[in-house]
Amino acid sequence: MKIVLLLLAAYFLGGIPWAYLIAKWTRGIDIRQYGSGNVGFTNALRTIGKGPAVLVLIGDIGKGILAVLLAKYFGNPTIATLSGLMVVVGHNYPLVLGFRGGKGAAAGFGALLALLPFEALLAVLVWGITVFFTRYVSLGTILGAFTVPIATLILQEDINYIAFGVLGAAFVILKHHSNISRLFKGTERKIGEKK
Question: pTM here?
Answer without folding.
Answer: 0.90
